[in-house]
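TICKET: design request
STATUS: open
ATTACHED STRUCTURE:
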């Protein structure tokens, strides 16, 4: 592992390169905070894939890409001083670092103050209480509006748990899942599209809640299932190709033979 001095030198090298790119590269000179946004989102998802694959080499590369974006935003921020900008004042990478340092110190009084906590749950509860003291009107203000719905549901439930709004036992949550499933089936039988959608959403929300009690990340669980399904389906496609037979010309029984083979693969 690198020493702290080597780490600082590497970070300083990245800052120097960013300065060069911003000054000399036509593409980098053209970028704005808005134009980088979608690229940052893509990089975040790529990091997520690497984490799910437990690929540390790829995680290292994707973290580098994200770090570049952070430095890039800070560089643009340091150039933003005119009143026409959406940013009221400029900032640089030091401001970014100091901002998060101050927040971490303030949000961890059990480390940097005299607060005593028993476990991680008390840490989370104190975190949410401190955020409200900082002027936030709701614990849900910290949930980004643009989050994918499944991730957002998980974050919402985690946030309200931090202030004590939660079930006491896992079986209570499972009972709620069963209740929502029955309500969904009722609306399916009635054939009301709007109510079916509403009840289906309730089922998903309750399942995500149950996942939390099982200590399962629903986003990770679903993505692993997506990958598993894709791998098996592509095996099915390859076998159909070997037979020279399009999938649409195969019966479900024929496809199921190869699907079962795929399930036995490592």
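STATUS: resolved
RESOLUTION: sequence designed for all positions
ATTACHED SEQUENCE:
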């Amino acid at each position: 592992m690198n020493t702290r001095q080597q780490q600082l030198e590497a970070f300083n090298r990245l800052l120097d390169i960013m300065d060069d790119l911003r000054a000399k590269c036509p593409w980098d000179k053209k970028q704005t905070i808005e134009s980088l946004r979608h690229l940052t989102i893509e990089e975040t998802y790529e990091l997520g894939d690497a984490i799910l694959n437990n690929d540390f080499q790829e995680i290292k590369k994707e973290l580098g890409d994200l770090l570049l974006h952070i430095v890039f935003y800070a560089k643009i921020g340091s150039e933003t001083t005119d009143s026409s900008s959406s940013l009221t004042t400029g900032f640089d990478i030091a401001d970014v670092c100091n901002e998060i340092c101050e927040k971490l110190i303030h949000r961890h009084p059990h480390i940097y103050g005299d607060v005593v906590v028993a476990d991680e749950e008390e840490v989370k509860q104190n975190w949410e209480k401190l955020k409200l003291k900082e002027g936030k009107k709701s614990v849900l203000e910290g949930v980004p509006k643009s989050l994918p719905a499944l991730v957002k549901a998980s974050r919402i439930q985690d946030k309200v748990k931090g202030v004590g709004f939660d079930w006491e036992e896992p079986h209570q949550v499972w009972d709620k899942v069963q209740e929502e499933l029955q309500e969904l089936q009722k609306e399916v039988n009635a054939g009301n599209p709007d109510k079916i959608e509403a009840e289906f959403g309730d089922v998903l929300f309750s399942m995500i809640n149950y996942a939390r009690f099982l200590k399962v990340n629903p986003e990770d669980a679903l993505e692993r299932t997506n990958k598993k399904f894709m791998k098996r389906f592509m095996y099915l496609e390859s076998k159909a190709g070997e037979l020279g037979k399009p999938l649409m010309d195969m019966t479900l029984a024929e496809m199921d033979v190869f699907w079962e083979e795929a399930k036995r693969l490592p």
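CLOSING REMARK: Residues 218-243 form the longest helix (26 residues). The two ends are 34 Å apart (CA to CA).
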